[in-house]
Amino acid sequence: MPAHDVEVTGIFTKDILGLCATPTIIVSGNKMIFECETPGAEFTSYLTSSEEFSGGEVVIENKDRTYTLTVYAIAPGYDRSEPATMKFIMKQGDVNADGKVDVSDYIGVANIILYGNIDGSQQ
User: Fold this and answer.
1) How far is the C-alpha of 88 from the C-alpha of 91, rounded, in Å?
2) CA 97 – CA 93 distance, rounded (Å)
3) CA distances from 92 to 82, 100, 114 (A)
């Protein structure tokens, strides 16, 4: 098969725009909101916990757990951002993450079962 010369013109925006801005994690009530200064950014998040793994199984203990939320932003023409992280402790039974275990946690569980969210709003 004969070779052909090909001319490519255009701007390679990935090389010009660089990294997407590092996202910001905002805690508002029982929600975590992600924001980014880069227009059109979308987010990928990972939640890891202090639970120990043994032989492929989670060791479940009646204790508080520390969670780390890691969020990345990416937008068209940009590389993935540096990570934004937040650590928080979830007390055993503290469903709404207000730092105490009380009747509001039981209401939150009922709302999750009935409505699929902790605040009971019907979507």
Assistant:
1) 10
2) 9
3) 31, 9, 22
pLDDT tens profile 46-84: 877 655 444 444 444 556 677 788 889 999 989 999 999
CA distance 96 to 110: 12
CA distance 118 to 96: 7
Count CB atoms within 10 A of the CB of residue 21: 18
Distance CA 35, CA 42 (A): 9
Residues 75 and 82 sit within 8 Å (Cβ to Cβ): no
Q: How far is C-alpha 71 from the chain's CA centre?
A: 5
For 73, other C-beta atoms within 10 Å of its C-beta total: 26
Mean pLDDT value across the chain = 75
Task: Summarize the chain as % helix, strand, coil (round to 5).
Answer: 15, 35, 50
